[in-house]
Amino acid sequence: MARIIFCLILLVIAPISADGQKQAPSLVLKDLQGRTLRLSDYKGKVVLINFWATWCPPCLAEIPELIKWQREYRRSGLQIIGITYPPKQLSQVRRFIKKLKVNYAIVMGTRELRAQFDEGETLPLTVVIDRAGVIREIIQGILLPEEFAEKIKPLLQQDKPQTTSQKPAHPNRP
Questions:
Q1: HSE of 148 in the Cβ direction (CA atoms, 13 Å)?
Q2: Residue 47: which of 15, 22, 74 has the closest Cα?
Q3: Suppose 47 and one of 34, 104, 110, 129 were both cysteines; which one would form an S-S bond, judging by CB atoms 3.0 to 4.6 Å apart?
Q4: Quick one: angle between helices 90-100 and 57-73, nearest 10?
Q5: How many helices and strands (H and E) does the chain possess?
């Protein structure tokens, strides 16, 4: 019985890397259109998981910056995933996202999902995951531009994904 309990504990605890850093959990989520979103699909990218709510004034203040950063740093490997917490009605969230012209993935959250990163209730909450899938930071409150420059930009500059510029096979086709 003790072995079974020990095995269950090992399954629940997030893996810790050799240098003591916590690996991001293996998440499988559904976006607002019902498409499957796996955190593992973003390995090699710097991921910001942003917990927010439609009724949260600091969240609303932060979203325009997140939209701007997603647009500016997408090619450098940034991927933002917004998670509503606590979840509201899907139709309300869709209208909200459309109105703000959010350009990153949005999923409906749960208390259990949030608890995988933080037990508190502070919103917004941003989890910074590096290209190797390691949680680097958990930022409670608004992610300020100074924090983005200090904590996320350096991760975007490390181990940039290889890009090759290829000319189109036909000059008149993209």
A1: 17
A2: 74
A3: 129
A4: 60
A5: 6, 7
Token reading at 93:
């969230």
Concatenated DSSP letters for 56-73? -HHHHHHHHHHHHHHHHH
Tokens of 60: 């609303």
Closest CA to 17 of 137, 156, 132, 160: 132
C-beta atoms surrounding 52 within 10 Å: 22
d(CA 70, CA 78): 6
Starting at the edge strand found earlier in the chain, the sheet holding 135-140 runs 105-108, 78-84, 46-52, 125-129, 135-140
pLDDT digits (tens, 9 = 90+) for 36-95: 999 999 999 999 999 999 999 999 999 999 999 999 999 999 999 999 987 678 888 999
Does residue 124 have a cis bond before it (omega within 30 degrees)?
yes
Residues found in the chain: 174
Q: How far apart are CA 78 and CA 29, in angstroms?
A: 19
